[in-house]
């Protein structure tokens, strides 16, 4: 009965043209690196927002909400974002990734990255079912979710999850919004670093989780936006990543607003923050607006 009800809701959403929604477990077997069973309410998932077939452009975004690795701002930096993208014919997947916990994880710092890799793997694995071009699957991350997206985009060559199909874990593109980029003193957001790495991170951890030190020519093209007066995550994070990408010859756009503080997109009209992102996608041929989608 539950499965039938979910299917009915999925089909109804399609018929209404608002995009179907499904909540899907990230893992069908055991959850990697966990020391034991994970309570149902803490299990990692993706919520899929799929445009109707006649409006589906084939582009997809995997969305990582922020929350300093201590909670997930799923509504403001997940649901609202997905709904905006799906209205433009872009499939969107909001990731509920594990929050780092020493008590239940062998290495709490790796759990979010594992979930991020599994999320992009799952989207590509089921891309045909969802009418998605696997070469046009990118990531969108906000605040600490931007850090997770950037970590995924700089550590895609090694799989930290089972990946027998050898599906590429490299995002086609990255969209980072007021992101935490570095774990180094002077740049990092202290709360995010403590939640992810603890009070006394090793030099190796600081290097691994500072995206600006792990770029190369294969790092995905990136769109970054930040407010210069951000009092939570300094905009120097975005500047440092921009400079690192530019040095490696990676296509990158940096949009700095003079004012707005942290979370500024939550206080803007949707078109104000969405349109520049769509233009970035169009310029790089990852998104083609279709006639029915222009309404």
From TrEMBL:
GO molecular function, one term: hydrolase activity
Record's signal peptide: 1-20
Keyword NAD set for record: no
Residues of the BD-FAE-like domain: 49-245
Domain of life: Bacteria
Alphabetic keyword roster: Hydrolase, Signal
Coiled coil spans: none
SUPFAM superfamilies with a match to the protein in the record: alpha/beta-Hydrolases (SSF53474)
Keyword Oxidoreductase belongs to the record: no
Protein's recorded name: Alpha/beta hydrolase
